[in-house]
Amino acid sequence: MANSDDSHSTTTAPPAAASDAAERAGQGRVQAIAAAFLTIGTPGLFWLTRHPRPDAWWLTVGVIALLALAELFPIDLELRHESHSFSFAKVPTVISVFLLAPFVAVLARLTASAIVLIAVKRQPPIKLVINLLAHMLEVMIAAALVVLLRPPGPFGVPAWGVAALAVTAGDAVAAFVISSAISAFQGRWEPGLLSGVATGLVAGVPDVALAIAMVTMIEAGQAAAWVVLASGIAFVAVCRAYSKIRARYQAMQLLDRFTRAIAGAVLNGTATGALLSETAEILHADGAWLIVADASGTRRITAVDAVVAEAAAEPLDEMIARHGVAAARLETDDGPLGDALAAAGHLEIIYCPVSRDETRTVVLVVADRSGSVRPFDDEDVTLFETLASHAGLALLNVDLVNQLRDEITVTEHQATHDALTGLPNRTLFQARLESAIEGGERPAVLLIDLDRFKDVNDTLGHHNGDRLLREIARRLESSLGTERCVARLGGDEFAALLTGSPSRADALGLAFDLAATLERPVTVADVEVDVGASIGIAFESADGIGTDTDTLLRQADVAMYTAKADRSVVEIYSADRDNYSPQRLSLVGRLRSAIDNGDLVLNYQPQVALATGEVVGVEALVRWPQPGRDPIPPDEFIYIAEHTGLIRPLSRLVIDRAVIQAARWYHQGRRLRMSLNLSPHNLVEPGIVGVIAGKLAAAELPPDRLMIEVTESTVMANPKRTLGLLNELRELGVGVAIDDFGTGTSSLAYLTTLPANELKIDKSFVFAIGSDPTADSIVRSIIDLGRNLNLAIIAEGVETEQAAETLIDMGCRFAQGYLYSRPLEVRAFEHWHANHDADRHAAGRAGATGPTAFAPSARAELN
User: Fold this and answer.
1) 2 DSSP assignment
2) By the 8 A CB rule, do 199 and 4 touch?
3) For residues 852, 857, 859 and 860, what is the CA-based torsion angle, rounded to 10 degrees?
4) Where residue 663 sits, what CATH number does that domain have?
5) How far is CA 492 from CA 201, 447, 522, 563, in A?
6) Could you say which DSSP state residue 370 is in?
7) Same domain, 574 and 589
8) Are residues 572 and 595 both part of a single domain?
9) Domain containing residue 185: CATH number
10) Are residues 605 and 723 in the same domain?
11) Is 13 part of a structural domain of the chain?
12) Element holding 825 (H helix, E strand)
């Protein structure tokens, strides 16, 4: 017969007293199951007695002997927690049901099983009864099938099928009995317990074949049957030898695993739990524990589900501690510790000291093999002693490792925390931010920079600056609480992490609260110090794509510097204010290629005389079209050019194309003045006047046909150098215009000395004409100023006739805006210009009036 028993999950502690009631209940259910099977089987036994068969006493004795030998010397295989025992009991079973009387066959099986299970294996009563019932019903069913199905005549091929069926049915019934008993004990049906039946059937094919051969020869009276039996016994011996070799190899593997597991556990602080669980699992023991005896007494250390617990020693532990053995020892219920084992609910234990000195003794104990295949044997003792030796070394290292771990903890804390304030540092902050992002949250980062910290350091010294930083850290921790991470990134820069996908309103509210907290005076060295803070906020993007810790910190840094520059205290990151965003930087290479390939184009917006509508000039505006998409805004790519060294080739391109186009129109008879803007970088560029002069000469364009526009802020940024360059342009004959007048920083003293020809009123004032009295006053003042300084005035952004009429009334002579035309490419502009002149002359002949109904008159020109 081939048995398969699934061992229960290995625990590392003996059965607890709390489970006694459940165990008694389970035993009661098993007794009921046993009574039921006995009741079912008894009629079958009586039925078998009605079918006698002549048999020989020597054959009966031989069958009993073979059955006992098969049970005593099985082939044991242990795969993970599942134990398989192949006993080759099918050979004598088949012989008995075919050659002995059916009832005698059952008695032979019961006799052999009782001898082995009681005298050798010493099974407890309840387990003994279930196994005897299983064996009885197994042979009873097999014998009954043989009685009912065996064809008359000699033992031939048809009888072979009956033999296979009888053995299979008997195995299935026995497996059902065992599974039912185990399920009854556990209080629930365990269908997995029947999984070993298929394995047993496959493994039983060789012994069924051997049994068929022997029955055939015995019925035929052939002596060769004993040769077949001897061959079968030799085959069993070879299999048992292979099983032992395989077990030794597995033991070596388990020892290697044990060593690795304990080494790792010593490092991570779980040495005791790992030692007990690994020892119990390797030896297939129901329990494992440590006995520790020292000056404070004897106690037991267990581990259940990796949780280590300490309890008072039991009498068995006291006896083991007193024995003082130096090597591993196996104790069973018939040995010196038998009574103590029975009292503790164990059948067998192995114990061995793992550590012993003058002050303390530690003993490792395992109890009861969890499978029913076999008890502990000498090989288990040898393996256990080896494990105990490794365990002793591991436990000796635990104290040293704990000491090292404490030192590592201190070192790790120092590596992830700021030494001055005790706050997390940049490394730990980034780690927590990354964890929040990976966890699917949309965190917000607040970057906090003190505004006047340098003054404190310079005035009161660095030691007082440190005191201030500690106070700032305390306030931040108090305001943010323990559930939020606040860190010092370095210097006077702090950061706060808001997890849980905070809203913009929540983040802004918290930031302003922090700013108010930090604005309160701090007393340092008997001096009340006022230090404000600028706070930048960055949010993880809604889709989470392309956002990482470095990006969020950089964006918060950009927002913080925006708040500092605008003196707005708190700012949320905006890509429009990020001059170094990855998107903008990605345009650098494309812009360089566009300049080299001539992909940039110039658009021209007309400048007209308000009174007559005559086109007196154009402003050249550079554009970067994108095939199939909207063009890139000039503010975006011009800024990039100014900050990446591309402004020089870009300006050269604009100057060259504008001068060439102005010359072409000039030679065609269109006397239009070409206006173009110069960047502040161009105004400090050596030789820029020479470049412009060279372009004018090459195109044969009179210098007075070119107007260079600069902003007043550009002039005031470096007045001396700018004035020198503008004077050179005037000496060359090129006009100079002050662009966006009224929006920047200017000085009337410089304005009177500027070599300018015209002022351009910024469109922000022109848009508000007629609706805002303040704007009207500003525009009128600029016109009066320009008239008094003999400067031509151009109003930008004229979009309505009402605005044009108001400007005429104020004395403004020239305008530019969408009322006349948006910026156009060269051919579109030329077409518009021709139509505009035709419309203007037609309107003049019809006698129309108004700013868009121009009458022919003397030509108006910009000065």
Assistant:
1) E
2) yes
3) -50
4) 3.20.20.450
5) 79, 11, 15, 16
6) S
7) no
8) no
9) 1.10.1760
10) yes
11) no
12) none
Q: 488 has which bridge partners?
A: 494
Question: Do 623 and 513 have their domain in common?
Answer: no
Residue 660 · residue 678 · CB < 8 Å: no
Q: Is a pLDDT exceeding 50 seen at residue 650?
A: yes
CA–CA distances in Å: residue 150 to residues 144, 164, 206, 341 = 10, 12, 21, 51
**Cβ–Cβ < 8 Å for 320, 314:** no
What would the DSSP string read from start to end of 44-95? HHHHHTTS-----HHHHHHHHHHHHHHHHS-EEEEETTEEEEE--THHHHHH
Please report the pLDDT score of residue 311 as a whole number: 83
- Which residues does residue 290 pair with via DSSP β-bridges, in sequence order? 301, 364
State which residues form the domain around 369: 269-412
Residues 290, 385: one domain?
yes
Name residue, tokens 């044969």.
700
- The helix (run of H) or strand (run of E) holding residue 116 is none
90: tokens are 């099918």
- 846's enclosing H/E stretch is helix 826-846
CA distance 265 to 273: 8
Give yes or no: residues 330 and 354 share one domain.
yes
| 566-609 per-position pLDDT tens digit | 888 999 998 777 766 666 677 888 899 999 999 999 999 999 99
**Strand arrangement, sheet containing 444-450:** 485-490, 493-498, 444-450, 533-539, 570-572
Token code pair at residue 232 = 């079968």
563 and 634 together in one domain: no
Per-residue pLDDT for 806 more than 90? yes
Contact 422, 473 (CB under 8 A): yes
Contact yes or no for 522/463 (Cβ under 8 A): no
Q: What is the distance between the alpha carbons of residues 116 and 118, in angstroms, rounded to a whole number? A: 6
With 60 as the cut, is the pLDDT of residue 225 above it? no
Residue 389 has pLDDT above 90, yes or no: no
Residues ≥6 apart with Cβ < 8 Å to 137: 37, 41, 170, 173, 174, 177
Strand partners, 606: 618
Shortest CA distance to 680 belongs to which of 642, 737, 632, 728? 642
* 659 and 799 fall within a common domain: yes
Residues in the chain: 863
Number of structural domains in the chain: 4
Assess contact for 627 and 619: CB atoms under 8 A. no
Q: Is the pTM of this model over 0.70?
A: no
Q: Which of 452, 518, 448, 456 is nearest to 486 (CA)?
A: 448
- Classified as helix, coil or strand, 283 is coil
Residue 205 binned pLDDT confidence (cut-offs 50, 70, 90):
low
For residues 181, 184, 188, 191, the Cα torsion angle rounded to the nearest 10 degrees is 10
CA atoms of 385 and 382, how far apart (whole Å)? 5
Distance CA 27, CA 31 (A): 6
Pairing mode, if any, of strands 706-711 and 735-741? parallel
d(CA 847, CA 853): 8
CATH number of the domain to which 290 belongs = 3.30.450.40
Ramachandran region, residue 629 (left: φ > 0; alpha: ψ -120 to 50; beta: rest): beta
Would strands 758-761 and 792-796 be described as parallel, antiparallel, or unpaired?
parallel
Residue 532: exposure state from Cβ atoms within 10 A (0-12, 13-18, ≥19): middle
| Distance in angstroms (rounded) separating the CA atoms of residues 743 and 745 | 7
